[in-house]
């Protein structure tokens, strides 16, 4: 197995952990963190493939993923904090006035 | 540079409107006017560019594509942004940054449509989503916060899937320029390529509200303020459909024999599930959310047909759907007044108390249902034609069944309007010039397109051709 394969295998593992985290955890903060893990797994895969193909666009993409993730965290934490202020509990199953 | 002018105007609209909230705090609607004027200027410029000589060019080595398709999508998303601004007019409760965020979201939708590169596509998807997370929660109610939170979590999750799919596609092809994918020989990397394609399709399926990735739509639509729901229903749908058209119908057309059946099954499932679930809804916004899911299925029919007629019909269908959606949300905005949300029972007696509003609403709802003489019928007719030309009878049958189920769902609110009693909301009904203008324009446009569709067909005919890129 080449270095690319190993790195991509790690990226797939991180992606799977993130996806399972979003689907099973019930705390929005943890779910959000797990979703960010999926993003970072993609960034890792991009860097690995960029090295394999000797092309820079994958590394550009990795930087853009980091920048966008930072913007998303800014908005996400603000939203989660504002929801927490209203009810002082964080459990996605209790935040369910909308359903039907 | 000249081809980027609509985007520059919209980005300028966002920045200037932010400045106006700082510099002109006394002039309450200053930020709204600035954003509205610059969005309208961007729309005019997109219309000029649409017919401009040489409007077929690749910018930044093909990462951005200037062609009539981008210009047409620019026009549609500007219409979505302008209608949202008008519906939120005098809406102090949405906060001063509302128009700036709408302009940023519109910019993201434009970026998605012009993308020829996975990097630009991803940035567009995020520029479109991030302001919408804030906008969904912009009304400080429990429902608004819940809608924003759900949208954020599902949005981050779907973007993660989209990104990982893009990473695998990059690994298989060695380039992020998806306009070059049709010319690439598919070697041993086919497994990587196929999985990457599926993940990207799932990620975009969340954005376009395709079944089984639709569960966030009703909650987010119901909890968000009505002007924001309007932007999501029309703008996000247009952006995501444009991305799927350019990426799937062009970037992957050599592999059409294996993605076409897949999208076909998903389209039939989306049409039938979306319209079936619209039947029992009591909240008008939720009903429109499920109708939006059903209409995502209709759009996918055009893509699954994978011929020129199909992409033409899918692009055309965006116009009747968008007109009908903004008309319906304008009526919700008029009926809800200072409250939030409209139940079907709140419409009781509207037909006798305000016959004009009721008549215009009937036109847009019949267009959603696909009754002849409205634009929705023409759109569904072209989709049916595309499915039959592609020899996909299953798609055509699914389309007809979905339409029939949808008809029952759309007739329920109309039936409530003719009740003899009058609800409190109808007694408090007040026309506002902005909401009224949106409703009148949407209903007139729907009727015009339904009676005389050939100018729009000509425009779509010129726009839906992606194969000049080869």
Secondary structure: elements and pairs:
The complex is a heterodimer of chains A (100) and B (470).
Chain A: H1 3-24, H2 28-53, H3 57-87
Chain B: H1 5-23, H2 30-50, E1 57-59, E2 64-66, H3 68-87, H4 98-114, H5 118-136, H6 142-173, H7 190-208, H8 216-223, H9 226-251, H10 256-278, H11 284-304, H12 308-336, H13 350-353, H14 355-369, H15 375-389, H16 393-417, H17 424-427, H18 433-451, H19 454-463
Antiparallel strand pairs in B: 1-2
Helix pairs in contact in B: 1-2, 1-4, 2-3, 2-4, 3-4, 3-9, 3-12, 3-19, 4-5, 4-9, 5-6, 5-9, 6-7, 6-8, 7-9, 8-11, 9-11, 9-12, 10-11, 10-16, 11-12, 11-15, 11-16, 12-14, 12-15, 12-18, 12-19, 14-16, 14-18, 15-16, 15-18
**In this structure, how is the largest beta sheet of chain A organized?**
none
The proportion of strand residues of chain A reads under 5%
Overall pLDDT of chain A, averaged? 89
Number of helices of chain B: 19
Strand content bin of chain B: under 5%
Tally the beta strands of chain A. Answer: 0
Query: Helix proportion of residues of chain B, in percent?
Result: over 70%
Query: How do the helices and strands follow one another from N- to C-terminus of chain A?
Result: HHH
Characterization of the model:
The complex is a heterodimer of chains A (100) and B (470). By secondary structure, chain A is mainly alpha-helical. Chain A has 3 helices and no strands. Chain B folds into 2 domains: 1-251; 260-470, no CATH class. Chain B has helices spanning 5-23, 30-50, 68-87, 98-114, 118-136, 142-173, 190-208, 216-223, 226-251, 256-278, 284-304, 308-336, 350-353, 355-369, 375-389, 393-417, 424-427, 433-451, 454-463, and strands at 57-59, 64-66. A two-stranded antiparallel sheet of chain B has the order 1-2. In chain B, a hairpin with a 4-residue loop joins strand 1 and strand 2 (64-66). In chain B, 65% of the residues are buried. The model of chain B has no long low-confidence stretch (mean pLDDT 91). At the A-B interface, helix 1, helix 2 and helix 3 of A face helix 5, helix 6 and helix 8 of B.
